[in-house]
Amino acid sequence: xxxxxxxxxxxxxxxxxxxxxxxxxxxxxxxxxxxxxxxxxxxxxxxxxxxxxxxxxxxxxxxxxxxxxxxxxxxxxxxxxxxxxxxxxxxxxxxxxxxxxxxxxxxxxxxxxxxxxxxxxxxxxxxxxxxxxxxxxxx
Length: 139
Prior knowledge:
Radius of gyration: 15 Å
Strand order of the largest sheet: 2-1-3-4-5
Order of helices and strands: HEHEHEHEHEHH
Number of helices: 7
CATH superfamily: Response regulator
Number of strands: 5
Helix content: 40-55%
């Protein structure tokens, strides 16, 4: 992913622990990403309604609204939004979501910067099928 692509990618980063949002935002901004941080998932959800991010990165275990519920609400409003969740202990919530047919990518805390960057690249990579369809139409 080029720096230009990173600068055009809007990321919402949500965690109720301010130290985590600061640390992850620093890493992502130093890599050229446009990052907006939230320590309250309800504030993030409110902002998503008016200003759509390309990628939502959220902790799962938070007061007021879990990251899983934030992700589900985001997908309802913005089906094209990529979502990446992280947690130290959220297997039961993700299992419940899986049973309901809702699946999101989950990373374990603590997040290693290279793992986070690799996941962002994977989630935001262009679909290879799209390029196949374009070349098929050109023939």
